[in-house]
Specification:
It holds the Pfam family MotA_ExbB. Involved in the TonB-dependent energy-dependent transport of various receptor-bound substrates. Protects ExbD from proteolytic degradation and functionally stabilizes TonB. Keywords: Cell inner membrane, Cell membrane, Membrane, Protein transport, Transmembrane, Transmembrane helix, Transport. It comes from Qipengyuania spongiae. The C terminus is likely disordered. The longest helix is centred in the last third of the chain and has 55 residues. It is rod-shaped and about 90 Å long. Helix 2 runs antiparallel to helix 6, helix 4 packs parallel to helix 7 and helix 6 packs antiparallel against helix 7. It has nine helices and no strands. It is mainly alpha-helical and 276 residues long. The chain has one domain. Helix content is 78%, strand content 0%.
Length: 276
């Protein structure tokens, strides 16, 4: 008997469906349009994130080749051949050599130096601008996606109020669908905006580190050209990199600080010849 009562109660219970698809269907073309905009924003954000990470990793990998092999070459022309084509570092070297070849037409050495410095600065700015491509889209998504979701929220609440007014009572079956749609849109807007903001800050930080290396390499190129190849950084090797990392971890107290000083002095010692 109890089983029959439960069966009859189950049949009499309302079979209302309140899910994502049902809420979107109640929202109509406006809800689906807002959802489509948010999906496009999310796909674009992740596409920019992964492509920029790949591009940044490639530039950092090429920088290791610059440290280890480029400055071992006798001339810039020979060193440029060791770099990958269409790379940021190769572009800086090529622009530096073009500026070097054209600055000989200037009679004043100061004007020649300014010309070289300006050419390298323009090349460096072009590389940084290319690395920053796509970041404005991430910033836009992070700033506007919550408001796009909020638009869906406002429309959903507005529809809920209309249903309440037509029904004359605030029954749950009249407001659950529109309110659920409103909450879903708010959640989707936040899910789209938060990853975009994190991606923007992450890529921006990595671009700053790359810009610092580009600036240092540009300065080294300028010094090398101005000194006719006499000034060049010491090539980094695996041993020197390990020693530098070890030196940064060694505390500069007591006798430990004397060793680096002696080492520096031994490196800067010059050989003199006595005239007879």
């Amino acid at each position: 008997m109890i089983t029959n009562i439960l069966a009859v109660a189950g049949e009499a219970a309302p079979q209302n469906q309140f899910g994502f698809l049902e809420a979107m269907e109640q929202g109509g073309i406006i809800a689906w349009s807002i959802f489509g905009v948010l999906v496009i924003m999310s796909i674009g954000s992740f596409y920019i994130l992964f492509t920029k990470i790949f591009e940044q990793n490639k530039i950092m990998r090429q920088y290791k080749a610059v440290q280890s092999g480029f400055w071992r070459a006798n001339t810039l022309d020979e060193g440029s051949k060791k770099l990958e084509k269409n790379s940021a570092w190769r572009q800086l070297v090529d622009d530096a050599m073009d500026a070097r070849n054209s600055h000989t037409k200037m009679g004043d050495n100061l004007e020649a130096h300014d010309w070289l410095h300006g050419s390298l600065a323009r090349s460096e700015a072009a590389i940084n601008a290319r690395l920053a491509g796509g970041l404005p889209f991430l910033a836009t998504v992070g700033a506007t996606a919550p408001f796009v979701g909020l638009l869906g929220t406002v429309i959903g609440i507005y529809r809920a109020l209309i249903n309440i007014g037509l029904a004359g009572s605030a029954s749950i079956d009249k407001v659950a669908g529109p309110v659920g749609e409103a909450l879903i849109m708010t959640a989707i807007g936040l899910l789209v905006a938060v990853p975009a903001v994190f991606a923007y800050n992450y890529l921006q930080n990595r671009n700053k580190r790359i810009a610092e290396r580009l600036s240092g390499f540009s300065t080294a190129l300028l010094a090398n050209i101005s000194s006719n190849g006499a000034v060049k950084p010491e090539p980094m090797t695996a041993t020197s990199t390990a020693q530098a990392a070890k030196a940064t971890k060694t505390p500069t107290t007591g006798t430990s600080a004397a060793a680096p000083a002696g080492t520096t002095a031994s490196r800067t010692t010059t050989t003199t010849t006595t005239k007879r």
